[in-house]
Input
Amino acid sequence: MACLVQVGAGSGGMAVLDLLGRDSRIDTILLIEPDIYKPHNVHRHYFPAESCGRPKADLAAGWLAERRPDLRVEALVADLCDPARAGRIDEMVSRADIGVCAVDNDRAKLHWDWLMRRHSKPWTLGEVLAGGIGGFVHMFVPGGPCFACVASQLQRETKVDDSPPPDYSAPGHAISEASIPASISSVHAIASLHALSTLALLGDEDGRGWDSTTRLVPLRAVPGIFNRALETVNLPFARLADCLNCSPGKGGGDLLEAFECLNRAAGS
Ligand SMILES: [Zn+2]
Output
């Protein structure tokens, strides 16, 4: 029986949590999620409209309890990066056998990476590409490549999005959207693969059959990007000897420093 710690219970995270929570190999789930359920979440989520105003973490715990009364669930309503909650989050991570990351910003992913490496825990990450054209499923094991190793080899753009939210009250005004929302079908497709990779990693430290750190899964054919839908690409990333996040002497836990290192790595 395994204990799983997950951060994030948004539309993708909740789908992963639901799938993993139904698996009899898992008997304890520790969940960290700060957000309150809002009316605009309803059409992409599992909970009814009357649940608006309650913490997503508590709603998720209730959802799991209804389906698996034998499952132990602890829900923490907290921001992963909140220093005031670091002690409690650290204690949760220390008890887990495996971690699941379902957040959508690189700052939180880097912090999760640091926590997982600090406690030598394997973990998984699912990422849906803008527009839902595909996604990544990553598996990380102790001593293997870290999130920054992988992100820099993907040459991903990793920066904090400080752009203001779009102003819908001013028609005709320029609207800068950070990304095109993915369809819920795309989100659930990647969430299902994320759950499967987590179970594979749980059964075997190397993730039997998942013989690479990262899988790129195109969900749509997009000219110039993906020739075909569902033509999965294995990306066997190695640990970078000079990784600015995980090589000896680096990534000592200073989140902002690690984040700046990742930005420099991505831009080099
Ligand atoms: Zn690294």
User: Anything to note?
Assistant: The helical segments are 11-21, 56-67, 86-95, 106-118, 147-153, 184-203, 255-267. The two ends are 44 Å apart (CA to CA).
